[in-house]
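Lecture notes, structural biology module. Today: joint structure prediction for complexes of four components.
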Amino acid sequence: MIGYGFMGRAHSNAYKRLNDFFPLDHRVVLQVACARNAEKVKAFADNWGYSRVETDWKKVIEAPDVDVVDICTPNDTHQEIAIAAAKAGKMILCEKPLARTVAEAEPMVEAVEKAGVANMVWFNYRRVPAITLAKQLIDEGRIGRPFHMRSNFLQDWTISADLPQGGAGLWRLDVAAAGSGVTGDLLAHNIDTAMWLNGPITRVTAKTETFIKERPHVLTGKVEKVGIDDACLFICEFANGSLGLFESTRYARGHKALKTFELNGADGSVAFNLEEMEYLDFFEYKQSSGETAESHVRGWRRIHVTNGEHPYMDRYWVPGLVIGYEHTFINALADFVRGIESGKHTQPNFRDALQTQKVCEAVLESGKTGQWVSTGVSA
Amino acid sequence: MIGYGFMGRAHSNAYKRLNDFFPLDHRVVLQVACARNAEKVKAFADNWGYSRVETDWKKVIEAPDVDVVDICTPNDTHQEIAIAAAKAGKMILCEKPLARTVAEAEPMVEAVEKAGVANMVWFNYRRVPAITLAKQLIDEGRIGRPFHMRSNFLQDWTISADLPQGGAGLWRLDVAAAGSGVTGDLLAHNIDTAMWLNGPITRVTAKTETFIKERPHVLTGKVEKVGIDDACLFICEFANGSLGLFESTRYARGHKALKTFELNGADGSVAFNLEEMEYLDFFEYKQSSGETAESHVRGWRRIHVTNGEHPYMDRYWVPGLVIGYEHTFINALADFVRGIESGKHTQPNFRDALQTQKVCEAVLESGKTGQWVSTGVSA
Amino acid sequence: MIGYGFMGRAHSNAYKRLNDFFPLDHRVVLQVACARNAEKVKAFADNWGYSRVETDWKKVIEAPDVDVVDICTPNDTHQEIAIAAAKAGKMILCEKPLARTVAEAEPMVEAVEKAGVANMVWFNYRRVPAITLAKQLIDEGRIGRPFHMRSNFLQDWTISADLPQGGAGLWRLDVAAAGSGVTGDLLAHNIDTAMWLNGPITRVTAKTETFIKERPHVLTGKVEKVGIDDACLFICEFANGSLGLFESTRYARGHKALKTFELNGADGSVAFNLEEMEYLDFFEYKQSSGETAESHVRGWRRIHVTNGEHPYMDRYWVPGLVIGYEHTFINALADFVRGIESGKHTQPNFRDALQTQKVCEAVLESGKTGQWVSTGVSA
Amino acid sequence: MIGYGFMGRAHSNAYKRLNDFFPLDHRVVLQVACARNAEKVKAFADNWGYSRVETDWKKVIEAPDVDVVDICTPNDTHQEIAIAAAKAGKMILCEKPLARTVAEAEPMVEAVEKAGVANMVWFNYRRVPAITLAKQLIDEGRIGRPFHMRSNFLQDWTISADLPQGGAGLWRLDVAAAGSGVTGDLLAHNIDTAMWLNGPITRVTAKTETFIKERPHVLTGKVEKVGIDDACLFICEFANGSLGLFESTRYARGHKALKTFELNGADGSVAFNLEEMEYLDFFEYKQSSGETAESHVRGWRRIHVTNGEHPYMDRYWVPGLVIGYEHTFINALADFVRGIESGKHTQPNFRDALQTQKVCEAVLESGKTGQWVSTGVSA
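The predicted structure, tokenised, for the full assembly:
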């Protein structure tokens, strides 16, 4: 484990709990936690039960008793660590976004593919049971020809102008570390989900905005220009002919983690909202038998995705009892391990994440030029 | 039209609008408005377009140009007017509850049946399209063996101890005029709906409460003991073996007209809430084909009851556009007129309303004695 | 009344009911209904109580007993009728959109302003009590610096390829009659609401799409190219620096009239959904006293907009009882008449509607060119 | 740990995770898992990391390396184990209900109090952050004089007549093992929550029902009379003068774990639903300043109980990200350990649970006799 921030905690929790819930041939052993601050990483390791600590990530990469490296550091460090880890033959789990730019990401993909190591990027929301169920309903043909997808990720935690950029917990506001603002941090999730559910996004037109133009920088101690996008809105075309509408911001008062999507097709629609992640809303126009559903009883169904027959839910409690945010990481990890055990590696891997990176980059470019931009992603 | 209060307005509106929306052989003519206060009834009649006014209801009953009498006066006057109107051969529409007591109500039923005049009691909520749809789903066999019904009518407008009892608009707080409090005013609606949907209520055990024990009385000018029930809760048995749970109060802070019901059967459930009356919630366990619905897509459906194929809705606007409270009266009136025109009289008539009165009376008696009481209502 | 379609009904209903609910110095008299089809307009007039019919709208314009002309015909006829009516000195109520294009609309504005006649365009949704309340909350300073507005109008009624374009009830699919598709029909409403609440929209970038490329044309009997936009999505800048995101379609399976908006400001947010129009959702971050609200009790409030202190609601029933779609027209009409009586004319008038037309036109142009387009609307 | 069923899993998970999230002076060590089936308890112990297994619970009680005993066995065994554990000086955590009857429970209370050992009963729902927040709002005086409480626990998993009684996972249907049906299993939770929030329940009148009269018994292999209550409804009086209405059933089609409550007071109301446990709904009538809230912005607030200032939530993730069912056990355990460390023992202890047992027993008695029954619980 390299890094010990919010994601370091979330992933560590997943490692510790994986074998409690999922029957697998392998058991996770928490070997090393690594970060530059020796004191803090020691406390982190003690809390989560890592056997030892390091302050130089290269030591982790070289360690013969390490099979898997998890990269939870800020985005600007992903590339160097990942390529070194690949060369060392380690399996790699990398926090999203894969990198700051496509240019940074491409060599990472090459490295893992050349090394032939198992790899995954932590787009954990694919493993929300309700979202996995949405994928299942689509694969069952219940949505039909898709027309529209809309997806938001709305937060409100940076409205105060007093909030600094950079520093512990706030590197996401520092463009040098993060690469971008909401586009890489939040929309990357929505884009990953969207392309998983609805296929490639081919063209985009976007608007980005930085509402607070200057903020104190923790590292320099000065008020500096803010380089990230506070908000990003884009319209897109999917390869399948449907239209997309995406919005992300940290200035939507009243929303803390309102990650949503809705997909409308000729035969049905699905909708999801992370703040009440136990539900999937589903509108069925055509019944599975092929018959049109009786029109007087049509309506949006709130599926409480907690039954044993719902994705992942047979591993947890009983119908009606909800799991939470953290279980998405456990589920993802289970899929990763099952992929290794079965030889059918799970997704999204580095190459999948590169597609999302391309869309993000096209979005950011369009935000600058005001033009439609092709993403270069294809089916 | 005898009376000009809140219900006088609601009914008058229905009379004026009936022929705008429903194709019928007859047209409503607003002939006479009657109330003791000459000035006020004149203003009322002018507003709604009644041709003339009277201050003595007996003049209305005797008037040869009056075919239908609508009784919108306080409950203590229903009996005398209704019996006189029946004797005069008038059709009668009577506001609910039918009377203050079963003893008052029974001669009214006898009178209309003996006279053979068309009669209806304004349990208008049967004509909320969503509730009518619930009835339809039950009749289609979608609920199966019923186990439970629960139903509330929660308000919060009498919490202030300063509110007087009696007087204009407040006769509902005066037991002499109203007969009872929430039991006759609110629960009567729920009981009517419940027995329409789920059959006779046979036994009850109840708790009634008066939270504010004394209130100024407008008519006497003194602080007097409050005789009505501020709240009423009861458990009941239905003839079909299912169990009911009812609650009404005017002390549920935050609720203005939260009239709800939910019916659970072996094959499905329906739920309704008057504050968002455009919806019916429906859970389907067994599909109409007889097959069990695929379990991973089961969920409560929010049916937006505004389509042309929904009850009454073909008479109004287009799908998605809601109608309101007042339309329940128009729909009820349409059914009444269609009943006359077709010879198949609509419900609930006086006899139906007597059954509801019996349940109310059993509830009030149980509230006093603490014992289970048989209602005397049978299938 | 010129026209007798869906809007002819909705407006007629408003005229008939205005004086029942609103105390005004003037009473509406339904003088003439006019349409080319003599038989149909006769039936319409009989139903709604118009004194006489005409088949030539010029007769209506010339009639000395007509004070107000209501234009409910397809969009391609608005200009000619409106200019003639203005010249004849009639007050004018015109259905939205004002015209098919800005070029058509501008002479209309000139005509009414030159003639000095009262005029209003039926953007009725401003008069949904919940939307009027949103305006009030904004004017009270409860939202603070605005950052984001998003607004949808989603329907699903044209998904079937069998639906013809043109003809009775379907002229909205015929570009010659309608001028555009969802942009003029649906987004015009959202734009009007948005600019009323959040000020001028200055720049837009849009995507328009026609999913079904050809449809049978009822008038020609042939399968013809569809000229309207089936869907329209746009991103915009408001003059106040906030960002907007709009979407409209008739291909969103499961939605019948999902007109929504949400406005996020530094101090609070409001959200609305027409399908449950009795609610306004409000998130208050800063309390009116200027103090920050206690953070542990913050949440989105569902305001059930049915109290006497809510806009327009003192004219109808009692708290908790909902009104419907049709009442927005009554409310608008009341404002129009009160405007005339008070000398302070109501909005939106033709000039206001021209601003919306300009935004629509910029959107359609951007949909063609893929470029950002300035609307020419200013504060 | 004695027992390895559903609760054995839920508690084990809590033990393993406690120190990951809560800073405490003590660390949990999973010493022994015990059950009669040696093979199954071995698998259970391996999965959750218990050091060793036993098949005789007396061995656990006697073990010198065991400080705390957790009783997760069926209800008929609670008494014997608990009294023995108390005598052995062990701290005790006992699954609810405390016992099958008051007569069984009383000696348990005496035993732990005589032994002076720390003790807690797993009424875990008090530790749902939203419910703890409700308690906080009540303690802050935001609800005012209470009038009404209503509370449901609705499930639908025993509707099928094919389901056997008794045996693994189904002992809850066997009256010998469970003592009662939904009353002890489900309503005990609601009663505990209700008395925590609203004080003692003093009198009850109840209706119990067994819909499926006979079921195959797994242990005997015969079809036997069902002795449990499938459903239980009761009305009650609280010592503070408010009225309660409770319902529980396993026959409410469409509900899996719909545990709800709503409390209405003069100054405000709170409402909760376990199926979306991340929310607390709160209606504030009187603002904290003592001023009446501005009436046009009043509404039910959906508080998304995931902020750092909400109970327990500072220990988990970031605002907007939900925790789940299992965290209620971690939170409860943290309170238990903090209670021991601080010397201020947490609740509910055995004595508190005895009060709930008394109410359950009064409810069951009333279900048999049809009379109002005093609970014997006082303030």
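Point to remember: Chain D has two domains: 6-122, 126-373.
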